[in-house]
Amino acid sequence: MTTTGEPLVRKYSENGVTTLTLNQPERRNSLSMAMLEALSEELSLVADEAETRVVVLASAGRVFCAGHDLREVREQFASHEFQLALFNQCSKVMQQIVNLPKPVIARVAGVATAAGCQLVASCDLAIAADTARFATPGVNIGLFCSTPMVALSRNVSRKHAMEMLLTGEMISAARAAEIGLVNRAVDEQVLDETVYGMARTVADKSGHTLKIGKEAFYRQLEMPLADAYELTSKVMADNMQANDAQEGICAFLDKRKPEWKDS
Question: Which stretches are annotated as coiled coil (predicted)?
């Protein structure tokens, strides 16, 4: 809970889209241990919710996420055990997002730095307000953004990732879109319209198909080419046996809207 009695992560669901909102704007939505644990719990719950087809990750206030809570980190300077637990917990949350059987869209308004930038990079899709900014500035304070580097380097090219990591400089939303950190940078006035328009488009698809596709996407990324094709050939053959694939093909040929059974 926050100091105001509000939950650290707010949850709202409507029409197949669940929004998880980081809700500690007075601390710049920093990823404290408590925030990470709260987010992890919500991700675990939403993973099993049949009614949720898409997750939107948002934030309250004018900062998306400022990374780890440096006040908390300073208080625990003497505890290597705490530092390791903190970074392990953060890594767990990022992997939960990647492994979640539903697409996750980051709604980015304001600044996303360090582990906050990592959070954006870990989501499947990201839409940013054109006023948003991004950085991995750990190098500026003597703490290289090594864990954010994992997600960043899997989303943008090697040289773009290294430029952000080595300089620690802020980049604009337009530049983030240019290098592939986010999908789109849009006027702040249409941020929600764009995010939830995309979420509804994705949520209209078969949940079973989305789960299959997302899992295969991340598995094949790390494979040699031949192994990737072997995996995805099997995935497609298995997918073809699903009710929704057969329904979708029949609906397309019959020129009607498919009726998904999510199986």
Answer: none
- Which stretch of DSSP H or E encloses residue 131? none
| Residue 10 Cα to chain centre, angstroms | 16
Determine which helix (DSSP H) or strand (DSSP E) holds 135, and give its type and residue range: strand 133-135
CATH architecture for the domain at 207-253:
Orthogonal Bundle (1.10)
- The CATH number given to 9-203 is 3.90.226.10
The residues, ordered by sequence, that sit 6+ positions from 179 with a Cβ below 8 Å of its Cβ are 156, 157, 160, 171
As a whole number of angstroms, the distance between CA 227 and CA 145 comes to 31
Average pLDDT over residues 13-22: 97
The CATH 1.10.12.10 domain(s) of the chain lie at: 207-253
The residue assigned the tokens 């004018």 is 62
Tokens of 238: 């298995």
Q: What angle do CA 56, 219, 88 make, to 5 degrees?
A: 65
Q: What is the pLDDT of residues 163-208, one digit of tens each?
A: 999 999 999 999 999 999 999 999 999 999 999 999 999 999 999 9
Going by their DSSP bridges, the two strands 111-113 and 104-108 should be labelled as unpaired
Distance CA 62, CA 164 (A): 22
Provide CATH 3.90.226.10 ranges for the chain: 9-203
Q: DSSP secondary structure string, 149-205?
A: HHHHHTTS-HHHHHHHHHH---EEHHHHHHHTSSSEEE-GGGHHHHHHHHHHHHHTS
Helix (H, G, I), strand (E, B) or coil at 52: coil
